[in-house]
Write a structure and sequence with these properties.
six-stranded mixed β-sheet, three-stranded antiparallel β-sheet, alpha/beta, elongated
């Protein structure tokens, strides 16, 4: 369970993704489930209330017993991985790991898990220029495409005010899971991220919002004399140690408001810190997802 800094030092995103996926011991959904599918799996005795159309009448005629044909139902997903690439994602924690770098590791692990289950992962990078899209596919070449895109993504600027470029995210392809990784720095009513979440909810499918934070954002663990700069606006603020209690209160209020806003859209919400080993974070996310899918 290496931390993010150690995994990044390996300099091999495909290897890191495989290690994380192998250690997760869970998937995005149960691989198969029993039901009225197309591929026969087994018989089970009839119970009152069962659908009579699934009775095997030939077997009943031979054995004078009633059995239902059960099949494996295809549960494969279209997995849409959405990365916030605005400038605030360049924030670095005490170990030197940026939120963007941590998000790369987490999304690479999710993509690897998705392919292992036969799902179709795709990547959507939301930055100042709009939406960069690698459409979901289940072929063997998809992971290299996703890993290259993740490795070459940089964070800069503000998210575009016009969310019209998010069109590819708003069309469903069968069973769909959308995972949004962001620090939700600009989650205000009518702000780009808020509008995007509203649209995703309206489009249907499952949506999981992963709120990524660095520990030093929570503790304000900086020297007494420090100047803080907003990575998106360039605004600077001189840090006064006496302001820390007020900062903590405002931060906790903002975190509550952010979670309430996201859950208010009807979306699943989970908060992650960059000092947590990415494999542990991946396993936690997958287990939450497994629980939601049952």
């Amino acid at each position: 369970m290496l931390d993010a800094a150690a995994l990044l030092a390996l300099g091999n995103l495909p290897l890191v993704a495989r290690l994380m996926a192998d250690g997760a011991q869970a998937g995005l959904h149960p691989s198969r489930r029993r039901g009225a599918g197309l591929e026969f799996s087994q018989y089970r005795p009839y119970q009152p209330g069962d659908d009579l159309r699934r009775l095997d009448w030939r077997l009943a005629a031979r054995s004078d017993r009633y059995y239902l044909r059960e099949s494996d139902v295809d549960t494969r997903l279209t997995v849409r991985l959405v990365l916030d690439a605005s400038a605030s994602m360049n924030h670095v924690d005490a170990a030197g790991v940026s939120k963007l770098a941590y998000a790369r590791l987490l999304l690479a692990g999710l993509a690897h898990v998705a392919q292992q289950q036969g799902d179709a992962p795709g990547l959507y990078v939301l930055g100042p220029a709009g939406l960069r899209t690698i459409p979901p596919r289940a072929d063997a070449g998809q992971l290299p495409r996703l890993f290259h895109a993740l490795a070459t993504t940089t964070a800069a600027g503000l998210l575009p005010a016009d969310t019209a470029t998010a069109g590819p995210l708003l069309s469903r392809q069968g069973n769909t899971l959308t995972v949004v990784v962001s620090d939700f720095y600009d989650l205000e009513p009518t702000a780009p991220l808020d509008r995007l979440l509203t649209q995703l909810r309206a489009a249907g499918g499952d949506v999981l919002a992963l709120h990524l934070l660095a520990p030093n954002e929570l503790t304000l663990d900086y020297p007494a004399a420090a100047t803080l700069e907003d990575l998106e606006t360039g605004q600077r603020l001189q840090l006064d140690p006496g302001q820390r209690p007020a900062y903590q209160q405002q931060l906790q209020a903002w975190l509550r408001q952010t979670e309430q806003a996201i859950r208010g859209h009807g979306l699943d919400y989970h908060r992650l810190l960059t000092d947590e080993p990415p494999a542990v974070a991946l396993r936690t996310v997958l287990r939450r997802r497994q629980g939601a899918a049952r």
